[in-house]
Fold these 4 entries.
Entry 1:
Amino acid sequence: MASAQEYVGRVPCPTNSSLMGYTNTTLLNSDIITDMQFIYNGGDMPEYFHYILCPQTTFKVASLAPGQEMEGDSPIIPGLSNSLFTCGEEGNSEDNCIIEGGDFHFYFPDFVIADQVYIAGLTFSGSKGASIYGDAHPSSHVVFIDCHWKFNTGTSTVYVHFTEDEGGRRELEEKTRPYDMDEMKQLMSKKAGALTTKKHSRDLQTFFKYSMSCVFVDSSFIKNDDIIATIFNLGGAIELIGTELTENNVAELSTFSVLGGGHAFIHEGTSFKNNFARLGPIYIDNVSFLHLSRDNSGESNKGSKCDGIFLEDSESLCFDKNEKCEGECCAFGDETCDLYTDDVPSSSPSQAPKSFPKPSPTPPSPSPPSGQVSQPSTQGSTSSSSSSVAMNTQANTESSGGSCTGYCLAFTALFGAVLVAILVIMFVIFRRTQAKRSMDASTASAGPSDFEDPPVVDKEIA
């Protein structure tokens, strides 16, 4: 990164003076603005911006909701694509970076494109609004790895939707303009207040926008107490891979709720246990899509409609307690309920990256996405995402007489970025698996390798 940038927040970490990181999220945001200003002024874009949170640190976040203001630091506001936020240098939750209290922990404003943002090894607790407030531009894609949410209360622990800024600040789509922290505080205060007062069911009846996408890998949601959902996805795309949801309580909808044309992928190793929600553990409304449900599980969940995945029928409006609510109840792992199909055309394979993205000491300008993504030739849940998206796009094309427009075209473009990032996740998991096997081998107790070669991708989205 260029030497012209002057940072105010990076300090030697208290538990490891050789590691430069952050102990204050307000100063972290100041340095994000510094990077935004650098790029805005024509500086060279690095491969990744890497923001290290100091291990063994609790970050106390302020509450900004009107009438409930409390002292503390600012929520983290990612302002740039290609950013890493990690606990320690490697992003391990065992290093105990805890973000606690406040209305929001990570705030994604609607005028920021946060594409290829990775958040690794953080623990989130005590939010009273939405720990992750995902209102970013629909092109945004965020990956959470080894992140954990517990004892959050509020509207939702994760809240994904999109409301385009009324001021029309769309110039950020072409070039990143640094945000102003005073402006952001006012905006977050307004949003925090709206979360506790808005009538969500009425908003959903007129929702026609696309939202950002998020992937949760090796993560957990435990003992959160939410109003509408623990994970609320309105018009976006959410993938759960090896993620645990246990003992969460939800008043209005389901633990994982997908509405307004949203997309859901529930991969292997994901489990729902001992959750209570009005409609059951998972709810997919009648204009949304269950793309993948494979090798997941659930037990001892409570709800009035379904103990598995509830697919609302076309005549129902289950988000409104006063309306008809009927549909199909699918068991966890029942592949007949999802939209995934293996019968999808493929293109020539290409090799995916083999490691977690790292910032480069002298980073080159990043290459633009090629639009080509891959599908492992062996069985793998991430490949299912590629196929299911392609299948749905193909279906939309056929139903419209051979042209992909509107909804179909928008999500085709969105998932081009989504799938590239998912491939990286596959190799994060692959890296961890290989590292563990190497340790086992050194003690002469290793078993045979499950993966002899990294997966290869071969799917192109039109």
Entry 2:
Amino acid sequence: MNKAIFLDRDGTLNVEKNYLYKIDEFEFIPGMPEAIKKWNELGYKVIIVTNQAGVARGYYTEEDVENLHTFINDLLIKSGAHIDAFYYCPHHPTHGIGKYKVECSCRKPKTGMLEQAILDFDINVAQSYLFGDHDSDIEAGEKMKIRSYKVDGDLFNIERYKF
């Protein structure tokens, strides 16, 4: 089995920008690229799990989300790091439009994205961690018995945690 670091995206991996999808607006949280590189070196799968209600609301497309995720990984690869997978929920139960206005099992604090990643990567949750900036992130991780930590979104200091 593998161990994993699950990260929320906006406010945890990158600086919070309202409904971020534009590549030129992307900015890492300071310290996060270095932390990802360290996790890669320690043998953790690094997996993003992110709610993307902007898709549900019609602000941007799933293709926009996927293009941004490719860009993020390309930046990390240049610094010797990488993200193993990106999982995102494009739904919203009340503010979605069309096919995206649904009560789904993937929108955090529900656990669908985590469950899928655990299956896809054969993850041992007892050896894994989750970091997020919202209570819904932490709730999802705790439901799956993953050690979960709320971060402040200003600076990520990997030295605060024991790996």
Entry 3:
Amino acid sequence: MTQASMVLMTVAGKDGPPSRAEAARQLGVEPGHVDVGYGVVAIDPGQGLYAVLVRSDRLPPGQTGQPYGGPFSNPKIRSFDS
């Protein structure tokens, strides 16, 4: 079975990071389609911007995270000597 591809999306939080359920609501997906292991990662807490990893096949057509958009690539990061 192939694993669905995941994409980074931006979400907003007024008084700190949104819950996974709130992030899913903002993106129009079920909470189970937001990656639990990745969590809600601060991009710019002062502006209330956070990132979540979401199944690309579950996003509604034309969906973008606001205000920066998305989806964004999420390349694997590893050391130069590996």
Entry 4:
Amino acid sequence: MRIKLGHGIDGNTPQKMYSTIGEKEVGPIGFLAILETQCGIATVPDSTTTRIIQYLSCIKESDNPNRFFHQSFAVDQFNVARTLLQWRDSWYEAGWHGEFGGEVSLRLQDMADIEQSAKNSVSNGLGERLQNILLMLKNQKTQIEEVCLLDELESFSPLWQQILNHFNVTIKAPLKASANQGTDLSILQNSLQNLSAQSLGKNTDGSVNKLKLAGDNSFVVIKARSKAVSARLMSQWLSKDALNQQDKTVALLASQSGNEMDDAFEAVDLPRLGFEGLSPWRPVLQVLPITLDLLWAPLNPEILLQFLMHPVGPLVGRVRKPLANVVAQSPGIGGEQWQAKLAELLEKEKNKESFVEKEFKQLKAEIKYWFDSELYNPDEGMPIEVAKQRL
């Protein structure tokens, strides 16, 4: 596999940006997801809101009148939790491991005290995920043959630089302004090339470095009140102007709502580009065949790992994720590590403040159903009633 990595790429949906056989173009988040899959790390990131709520609970456990955040926390718990979580995440991205060596300020000590419970209660952020990858790469190889950087190595964080050092890295030559010199477009291109040296367009005194444009229509900005109106304007311009000139090549980037652009193209008799809206039922449809495959003997560890790692599942994520980490290290069901982790998870459920006996029994029944069901020979098939029940 060959990876093209750049900051400006939509890392959450790399398949929309660029993909050929054995080659992917992704942003940092997309590359991280590929590394986690190749290293067998079961990570289904929780939303920011979910992580804030998790961290808020940890702050409550540690809160007392002597904490530096106590008064603010009494007024606005959610925003205090969000701010402190942002601090925590930025420290992990810088290489923090959850504790400080030696004497530190009271504020840092308060954060370290919160971390004692947060380590096991808050879903991993970006920094923790990067640290896990760095640890795995010391003893594990991937199928990635080359990483081509679209940005300078120095523009990546220290943790990313350490990870990239494990691969054969090449850096793509920087883009050069290609517009005719003196045009508005060339002025803009040259300015963008110099942004890093000019601190994103600002002078040393903080003032904005404004560009003087002639208005020669080589660079045009179109603003609209909605995506639908914007798509209609663009399709009409392409049909009446750009495509009438045979020597013109037009590149159109539509990272989101491309299906609206296709509808606008069709309305003016232009060819559709083939954008499709993702169905919200897609993850559920992916889970269905996996759940059936779990009934075939012998049990396929890869299918089991897919079931545990999938973002959607019939079993709660707080059980699936820890079990996925076990399967990644020791494939299969019923081993010592599997049984120990199951016992630990059930004990944790019993010790919850919100413990309800009926819900606990239901969870145990679900675990037994999904992992202790009878397996069937693929050559002979399974009873239709079993398949119906599972679906």
